[in-house]
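Bit of a strange request maybe. I'm writing a small parser for structure token strings and I need a real example to test against, not something I typed by hand. Could someone generate the tokens for this chain?
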Amino acid sequence: MMNEDLKNSNPKSEIQNPKSHFDPITLEILWRRLVSIVDEADASVARTAFSSLLRDAHDYTCMFTDSRGQELVQGTFCTPGQAGAMALGVKKLVNSIPLDEYREGDVFIVNDPWLLAGHLNDVCVMSPIFYKERPVAFTACVFHHSDIGGRVASDNRQVYEEGIFIPPLKLYEAGVLNESVLNLIRWNVRTPEEVTGDLRSQVAANHVCAQKVAEMLADEGLTKKAKSKPVLMTGTVSETAPPTNTGPKSSKSMGISMSGWPVTLTRVGSSINGSISIEIV
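Reply from user aminoacidic:
Good idea to test on real output. This should exercise your parser:
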């Protein structure tokens, strides 16, 4: 994905010579600032969320992407299952709408289990980030909500039994709350105050991220920020490529217990032409 992204970049404007845009120290400072921005949005959830599942168990993930939905940064304390699904799901969601149709203040909500983390309780809230009156990035967070309606059982056989299914909808349109969407959710859950409070916490987290990214763009300039992405990508590729070209095929086994039965998992890894292949058998 990173290599494809680099191929699609404009080589004349972005990656002629990465070192000419940022020296290593400046690049590291900018990278750390990007991470701290998402972590600040992450921390806002702990202060504003209603559910203890979010405040104490940290069952949520914050991230932001570029204008094409390519993930740039995720929170330091993100939930891996959510983060992995968001990298692809948010990208698909971003690209489902033409970039020029996004409006400042728009907030989207969706819990499609095939698009995101696999079940209806994981609700995604996504917002475009505007700078100088145009969308330059997107921020999103997925919360595991304590209730989404449906049967409280572990033997559900259909997704409809899990609760309310929310397709991609605008929760806010140009900064105006869509009360109909919020009421639809409120009337289909057992703890409406908690669920709607957590949804507002998601909106707040996105607002924090968007505000801080805009501040960074103002400090560094939009052109510099736009060029920092391929430099980061190039650095990531260069750091990971050498080991993948040198390691032979290898395997590692470990034993675990599943429902009381001993199971042995064997991981087989190989590297060919700079790509990594990992198989669990």
